[in-house]
Amino acid sequence: MPKLTKTVLDRLPLPESGYSIHLDTELKGFGVRVTPTGVKSFYLEKRINGKPRRIKIGRYGEMTAEQARKEAIKLSGQIATGGDPVAEKRRVKLASKTLAEVFADYLESRKDLKPRTITDMKNAFKEAFPDWMSKPVVKITPAMIEKRHKAHGERSKARANLAMRYLRALFNFAAAKYQDDDGKPLIDSNPVKKLSQTRAWYRVDRRRTVIKPHELGAWVNAVLELPGADIRDYFMTVLLTGMRREEALRLTWDNVDLTGKTLTIVDPKNHQDHNLPLSDYLADIFTRRKAVCVSACVFADSRGRPISNFRYAQAAVEKASGVSFCIHDLRRTFATIAESLDIPAYALKRLLNHASGADVTAGYIVASTERLREPMQRITDYVLKTAGLKPTAEVIELKREANT
């Protein structure tokens, strides 16, 4: 094979299948790879750190034979002096990883993320870092983090903290995921650490609002006056089970046993399926809904669409009762009522599907669904009595004796 020139390259025969290799006679390791479609690619083959490596230089047509030769000579010089062009190319490619690309890889890797978490992450990045998504992550500095956190915190301290926690997770992922051939990570140090080092995280007190006992009756009666049964039943179910907002919305009929009066929350926040007994009042609600429901979802409208917009119903209840609330307040209210009724701590944890943490004793106690039925009924009875929907004491009718 003669020296690779334009004339020689233009006359190279095309292979019928696979590819053919043609080596240059003057520069050792320099050659061209030809495919049946006529694509001709320059490459350099050398041993790097004792291993044979083939380095692609470029396509003929996009670069001339002489340009490719000069690049091959340059690469040969780097290798001769101990360099590794392959590793350097990989480092350059890694260093160009944008925040959007890292986020996409993160979502692809984290199969266990719930749809709501993914949506919240996307919203947080859109709010806090819209101009960073096309920026290489290695270009995002601690100083930039500190400045952006402060600016976003002027609008919402809680959202600013949350966005930075999500960003911190991406940087931790990038440090573990992207490494060069020597094992050196793309990210040496997570820049979000700056917020901890300077104690710049905003203090955001956890919301602890509940519907107070003296407000409960007005709230329940306002809910029961709602014109739509779907949201009315949803509000009452969340209050009387302590379910989280999304857990109740995702509930389907195949996870409800009306005969056994139980329901199962599949894949909740702690990823442990959760069985709950239904109180008599809830069993009646579910039985009524099942008779008219045209959807697999328990809480769907008359067209079979899962309910989603609570704004108007919530505003109507707040106006009628004078009680301001969010959906999660109902879960907190459920827990508060349970504590006021002296329901055992282990039973309450089981009702709320809370982990027992480091409590060793809890590991020996198994609270079955049936053992939770009585506490669940007590909570329902308390709510109904407070709202005047159930007598607060047993009424015994006394018969008047006839005069003798």
Descriptive report:
The radius of gyration is 34 Å and the shape is elongated. It is built from 16 helices and 7 strands. 46% of the residues lie in helices and 9% in strands. The N and C termini lie far apart (135 Å). A hairpin with a 5-residue loop joins strand 2 and strand 3 (40-48). It has 3 domains: 6-83, 2-Layer Sandwich (Double Stranded RNA Binding Domain); 99-197, DNA polymerase, domain 1, CATH 1.10.150; 213-386, Intergrase catalytic core (hpI Integrase, Chain A), CATH 1.10.443.10.
List the helices and strands and how they pair.
Layout: H1 6-10, E1 20-23, E2 30-34, E3 40-48, E4 51-59, H2 65-80, H3 85-95, H4 99-109, H5 115-128, H6 142-153, H7 157-177, H8 193-197, H9 213-224, H10 229-241, H11 245-249, E5 256-257, E6 262-265, E7 274-277, H12 280-292, H13 311-321, H14 327-340, H15 345-352, H16 373-386
Antiparallel strand pairs: 1-2, 2-3, 3-4, 5-6, 6-7
Helix pairs in contact: 4-7, 5-7, 6-7, 9-13, 9-16, 10-14
Helix coverage percent = 40-55%
Q: Which sequence of SSEs, written as H and E, runs from N to C?
A: HEEEEHHHHHHHHHHEEEHHHHH
Q: What is the subunit arrangement here?
A: single chain
Query: What ranges have pLDDT less than 50 throughout 5 or more consecutive residues?
Result: 360-366
Number of domains: 3
Structural class from helices and strands?
alpha+beta
CATH topology of the largest domain: hpI Integrase, Chain A
Q: Please count the beta strands (DSSP E, at least 2 residues each).
A: 7
Largest sheet: 4 strands, antiparallel
Specify the CATH architecture of the largest domain. Answer: Orthogonal Bundle
Q: Can you identify the CATH class of the largest domain?
A: Mainly Alpha
Task: Tell me the strand percentage band.
Answer: 5-15%
- Name the shape in a single word: elongated
User: How many H/I helical runs?
Assistant: 16
